[in-house]
Amino acid sequence: MTLHFTQVAIIGVGLIGGSLGMILRRKGLASKVIGVGRRVENLKAAVELGAIDRYVIDPKDGVRDADLVVLATPVDTYDRHLTEWASCLKKGAIVTDVGSVKGLLVEQAERAMPAGVHFVGAHPIAGKEKTGVAAGSDQLFMGARCIITPTKATDQQAFEQIRTMWEETGSVVLTMDAHLHDKILGAVSHLPHVAAFALMNALVEIRDQQIPSLDLVSHSGGGLRDTTRIAASSPEMWRDIFLWNRDNVVSFIEAYERSLSQLKQLIQVSDAAGIEKKLDQAKQEREKLSTRPTVPA
Amino acid sequence: MTLHFTQVAIIGVGLIGGSLGMILRRKGLASKVIGVGRRVENLKAAVELGAIDRYVIDPKDGVRDADLVVLATPVDTYDRHLTEWASCLKKGAIVTDVGSVKGLLVEQAERAMPAGVHFVGAHPIAGKEKTGVAAGSDQLFMGARCIITPTKATDQQAFEQIRTMWEETGSVVLTMDAHLHDKILGAVSHLPHVAAFALMNALVEIRDQQIPSLDLVSHSGGGLRDTTRIAASSPEMWRDIFLWNRDNVVSFIEAYERSLSQLKQLIQVSDAAGIEKKLDQAKQEREKLSTRPTVPA
Q1: CB spacing of B202 vs A145 below 8 angstroms
Q2: Which of A43, A118, A275, B190 could, after both became Cys, cross-link A155 (CB 3.0–4.6 A)?
Q3: In this structure, are strands B122-124 and B145-148 parallel, antiparallel, or unpaired?
Q4: Shortest CA gap A262–chain B (Å)
């Protein structure tokens, strides 16, 4: 299909929104890209970087004539945004998002759409450690996965347009049920983030309460650095992901607590064979992950 | 000081023992390096790779005339080894090791030394994911840390020789109390390994019991891969490390369990500010680790 939008409004011109804007403009997929945000300085930078043609502060001014609205703000602000401007959308417009959680948020967005306006949820999996439009690039999504989460209510034509748009970014596009998305990402992405954040905090407690001479900077090696790399991710973004995917995240933390407790108990009673069995299972599963090249997540 | 050994016996010619042998031979620090092991095929490969001059199967034949014995077998075998051949050592000989745990093992080795034979414990921190002499290199220790753990009983001259030997490998040599070593490495290395092994096993449980369609290979991204990289480490080696550093490891797992439980509870009650505070602390501590280049551990 030929993809072309007359006017695109990007709400939240950060790393993801800004990179998408660059691609839409450079590939001629949109005649006009309008950025919406609160920080004028950031919006000016987005114009200079070619991410948007112009900007407005009031989202209603941005979305009124748009045939595509990209919601690229933190997921916790969706409700406030949709309440503020969904009623201004013109018939036939498509609203999409880029949030890392889908289930409840897709339901919320679908409920907020006026008649004749179509919502399609999407989650481009790219570049989580950097933030801001200045880190944006029209290559950001190249080879990365983008998961689109249609529902029974999704308009087929709107779905095709969003899928084509993400294919144009160079993403590997997958389609998945929104709640299954949250389970799978909860396991392979949200749980490792919990593990990394909590590990850094445990080391702080160990240093402060048990080993005053522990200098984490000079004593840490590659193992600790790799294991905790994603603990440097955005606290605001991950706070919202954990809250919006709360039930899955809590359930998976509990599975992790069981796994840790089992290993601890085997060590406590010096069960050499039991420990080795657990480590061997982990090694075998981990080695399977090495069979394909790494993509960002 | 000028370092020269007439005969070195390396007990266990794997990645670490083999790499050290290559360096001792290529830099002319030893007139003769004898490898001791059980697998003749491996010992033949070690000769071909230039890690040793020749090999013997009976360790007593290797250590009898040695002025340096390097114990480079799994730490759990130290007792058996020392019982077997310590009484054959000649006066003035030095015994050193390369084990990842030090406290109890250094005490054990010191008790096993006959009069006039000196033990100096050491822990070169290098290359834990690969194994075997074939992966060895005379560059393996370049820039890596090596922690030497002298005690009140340590002979000063023997200590200086072991320190000089590790400096010759290109290691950054640190000196530390053996029990403090186990606390610090327990925190910055052993705990992250527990976290990574247990995380892989938790994902297996989640897949098998909660998300049958979870394909860990195709769904995992960079976050999971980094967080679990060290779960591919040797089960035998890490089993022994966890057992020989048991009390520290169990205590640190408990700190980790507290940290995880705190974060879980904040998520359960949707305490957004509380979650953000925890993630923010983790991010700040993690970012400090980025201030110096990574060295292996």
Answers
A1: no
A2: A118
A3: antiparallel
A4: 9
Strands across the sheet with B30-36, in order? B54-56, B30-36, B5-11, B68-71, B94-97, B118-120
* ipTM (interface pTM): 0.91
Q: How high does pLDDT run on average in chain B?
A: 94
* Sign of the dihedral through C-alpha A92, A94, A95, A101: positive
Minimum-distance CB partner of A199 among B192, B287, B297: B192
Rg (CA), chain B: 22
pLDDT in tens, B88-111: 999 999 999 999 999 999 999 999
B62 Cα to chain A: minimum distance (Å):
30
Which pLDDT tens digit goes with each residue over A231-286? 999 999 999 999 999 999 999 999 999 999 999 999 999 999 999 999 999 999 99
- Tell me which residue of B37, B61, B169 sits closest to B45, measured CA to CA: B37
**Does the structure show a pLDDT above 60 at B49?**
yes
Is the distance from CB of B46 to CB of B52 less than 8 angstroms?
yes
- Reported as a pLDDT band with limits 50, 70 and 90, residue A291 is low
Residue B204: which of A125, A202, A281 has the nearest Cβ?
Answer: A281
Structure tokens at B77: 């075998």
Cβ-based neighbours of A23, under 8 Å, separated by 6 or more: A29, A138, A141, A168, A169
**Pairwise CA distance, residues B81 & B84, whole Å:** 5
pLDDT at B255 over 70: yes
CB-CB under 8 Å, B198 with A256: yes
C-alpha torsion A66→A72→A77→A79, nearest 10: 40
Contact B221 A296 (CB under 8 A): yes
Give alpha helix (H) positions in A121-245: 156-168, 178-185, 191-209, 216-219, 222-228, 235-244
Whole-number Å distance between alpha carbons of B163 and B122: 9
Q: List the single residue in B with minimal CA-CA distance to A177.
A: B213
Q: What is the mean pLDDT of residues A213-231?
A: 90
- Write down all domains in chain A, each with its CATH number in brackets: 5-176 (3.40.50.720), 180-289 (1.10.3660.10)
Quote the minimal CA–CA distance from A5 to chain B in Å.
31
CB-closest option in B202, B280, B290 to A255? B202
Q: Tell me whether residues A263 and B254 touch, CB distance under 8 A.
A: no
Give A254 to chain B, closest Cα distance, Å: 8
Spell out which residues of chain B touch residue A225, defining contact as CB-CB under 8 Å.
289, 294
Mark yes or no for CB contact A203/B285 under 8 Å.
Answer: yes
| Identity at A176, one-letter amino acid code | M
Give CA–CA dist A262/A124, Å, rounded: 36
Contact B31, B5 (CB under 8 A): yes
